[in-house]
């Protein structure tokens, strides 16, 4: 296995098919990164125009997931890949599912933006959105980068970042709870912020999943339920 | 393809492998159904003992997902399944991912139970938990039944039920919002109920996903992003 993630085959056509579907997944990743970035901008700026676009642009992403899955099933049936090729195809199909879910979360954030555009701004929580947004965008970018470069160490870093994001999410939840108690008339608007924070936390989870698929791909080990310590051990092996 | 979901093979061993992994997934489904039922009981009865058990029993379910995925990868590599066998293996691995996520949601509901056991009961929302709980448990049961019997019509019914559950979820959200506004001191406890309702809504989504895998398996069509009307058309073809 070289750094393309698959063995080199006598069939140039087969190599090209593997490369193409990997490229499609990474392109889908780029689209999804943009959806997340735009969703965060929309809620911070209170821009329902951008939010509408995010909800609209979620559809081509769904289409991409179906296409990638179809192509993966076709490769499985026609090429009957083994070993690292098989892991690559499985990792691509799993990653595309996570990317589709991230697109859904971006759409949910956009929905909160649209609600807030009608109801008026929340009394707070925007700093927390900004902070978590920056973190999970970094995680998603690194996870895709790790996939592109077959970099299991970068993948491990993403999993470690997710722990930090989860901790920050806990404190952000306490902030929004306080806002609600201080001004009960703002509860509904603060809930919009709370759902957006929740969606960002989910984006972080899915980025971590993608990182786990990278470790599976490179190391052949399923690290989904093992905890960070054991994951680090597998990566360093 | 017969009602076992795969072609009959000359190799009895291969048939047995496909049957076994399907059975493992359905057994995992049974475990997950119990987790969801117990999680709902725990929050309604305020029983943190049951809640602790749910969080503990989530671990073997994670293990089951890893085992099923490993077995599916082994079958793909060794047997190189085609057509309906390939779809069966892919549908099993996807369904086990959804089941694992449902187990996570049951664990999240149990966490709300434990929070509430310390903070005192919520002023309301329990009727909504009960109602949504009954609906999504029915959906999950039907989705697994549809998988076991390769029943695409029952799968379609699950997708239709998910629409109803989503509608009910919307009205339950309005109920809990009102509770928070009426008594701001209860906000934190009502939020626990709200997160539990959210988890139940997610269980419904995953049950719907499993139903979509059944339709993919039986009809060979990816119906994940097509809407109910188109799904019904594919099922009736």
Topology record:
Two copies of one chain form a homodimer.
Chain A: H1 12-45, H2 48-79, H3 83-119, H4 126-149, H5 152-182, H6 187-219, H7 228-236
Helix pairs in contact in A: 1-2, 1-3, 1-4, 2-3, 3-6, 4-5, 4-6, 5-6, 5-7
Descriptive account of the structure:
2 copies of one chain form a homodimer. Chain A has 237 residues and is an all-alpha fold. Chain A has one domain: Methane Monooxygenase Hydroxylase, Chain G, domain 1, CATH 1.20.58. In chain A, helix 3 runs antiparallel to helix 6, helix 4 packs antiparallel against helix 5 and helix 5 runs antiparallel to helix 7. The first copy, chain A, starts with 11 loop residues before the first helix and ends with a helix.
Kindly summarize this structure in a few lines.
By secondary structure, chain A is mostly helical.
- Class of chain A, according to the CATH hierarchy? Mainly Alpha
Helix content of chain A: over 70%
> What gross morphology of chain A would you assign?
globular
Overall pLDDT of chain A: 94
* Count of discrete structural domains of chain A: 1
Task: Give the CATH architecture of chain A.
Answer: Up-down Bundle
User: What is the number of beta strands of chain A?
Assistant: 0
**Between the first and last Cα atoms of chain A, what is the distance in angstroms?**
17 Å
Give the assembly state of these chains: homodimer
Mind describing the biggest β-sheet of chain A? Answer: none
- Counting helices, strands and paired strands, the structural category of chain A is mainly alpha
The chain pair forming the largest interface, with residue counts per chain, is: A-B, 30 and 30 residues
**Low-pLDDT residue intervals, each spanning 5 or more residues of chain A:** none
Structural Rg of chain A: 19 Å
Order of helices and strands of chain A: HHHHHHH
CATH fold title of chain A: Methane Monooxygenase Hydroxylase, Chain G, domain 1
């Amino acid at each position: 296995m070289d750094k393309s993630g698959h063995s080199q085959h006598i069939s140039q056509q087969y190599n090209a098919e593997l490369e193409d579907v990997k490229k499609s997944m990474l392109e889908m990743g780029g689209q999804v990164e943009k959806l997340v970035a735009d969703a965060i901008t929309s809620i911070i700026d209170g821009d329902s125009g951008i939010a509408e676009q995010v909800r609209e642009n979620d559809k081509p992403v769904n289409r991409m997931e179906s296409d990638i899955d179809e192509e993966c099933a076709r490769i499985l049936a026609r090429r009957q890949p083994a070993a690292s090729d098989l892991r690559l195809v499985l990792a691509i199909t799993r990653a595309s599912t996570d990317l589709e879910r991230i697109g859904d979360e971006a759409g949910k954030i956009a929905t909160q933006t649209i609600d807030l555009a009608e109801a008026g701004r929340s009394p707070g929580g925007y700093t927390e959105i900004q902070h978590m947004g920056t973190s999970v965008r970094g995680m998603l970018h690194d996870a895709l980068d790790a996939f592109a470069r077959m970099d299991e160490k970068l993948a491990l870093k993403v999993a470690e970042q997710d722990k930090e994001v989860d901790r920050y999410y806990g404190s952000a939840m306490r902030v929004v709870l306080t806002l609600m108690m201080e001004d009960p008339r703002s509860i509904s608007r603060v809930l919009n912020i709370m759902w957006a924070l929740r969606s960002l936390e989910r984006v972080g989870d899915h980025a971590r999943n993608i990182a786990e698929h990278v470790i599976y791909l490179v190391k052949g080990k399923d690290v989904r339920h093992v905890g960070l310590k054991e994951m680090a051990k597998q990566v360093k092996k």
